Amino acid sequence: MKKTSQLKMKKADIKMEQTQKLREERTVRRDSLKADNGMSDDQQDSDDILSMKEYLTAEARELSQHQDVLDAAVDVFNLHKQRFWEEIDEHDERVRKFEDLRAQTMACLQEMLDEVSLENMKLKKRTAEHEKEVADFKNKVKEHDKAAKAMASKHDARELELEERKAMFEKMIAEKHVKIQLRKLESQKEEQDFDSDDSSIEEEYMQGLGMDIDDAGDDDHGQGLEAGRSTGWTV
């Protein structure tokens, strides 16, 4: 289309040049005839009329050529106008495609943002649940430590109580052993019917206590344990 318009413009320029040459030649020929022939006024007027007719005919041809030039220019303008509107249509089509692509891109981005937001909410929820589990676990650990300390304290108190009971039973056994030894000595005294005084009895008691205290202690210790069990006390 661009080559066609250039060709038409070139043809119009050629026609304008030809018209200009014809006009110049006609003027030169008329002036030359006037100078060489020395015509009368009537002849001159007749020749002027003829020349005017020729001039008008040439002008009409020239106007026709100008009309051709104008027509060619109009054709070129129409071609440029058509090409302009075609470019506008192409531009509008590119804009439409760009807007469609932009809308699709924005929709895709919005979808991705929604997914990211949803995952972020899930992550926050899981984080809160995990923190709650950690807090619950710490509370259980604290309760376990508290219970362990309470059990340790109770165990220590139990051991102390058992130690106290053991000491009490050992004391009871020792006292019972002493009473048994005293009864044995009293029994021996009644059987033998000694006539010794109180000092000799105590001396004999002490001697007998030193001799038999280990054997008597084992027997009496067992009896003391049985007595403790019957009363509810345990060692």
Automatic annotation (TrEMBL):
Segments carrying the region annotation (Disordered) are 1-50, 186-235
Compositional bias segments (type: Acidic residues): 192-205
Superkingdom, taxonomy of origin: Eukaryota
Bias (Basic and acidic residues) occurs at: 10-34
Q: Coiled-coil regions in this chain?
A: 106-147
Question: Which UniProt keywords are given for this protein, alphabetically ordered?
Answer: Coiled coil
Its protein name is Uncharacterized protein
User: What organism, scientifically named, is this protein from?
Assistant: Monilinia vaccinii-corymbosi
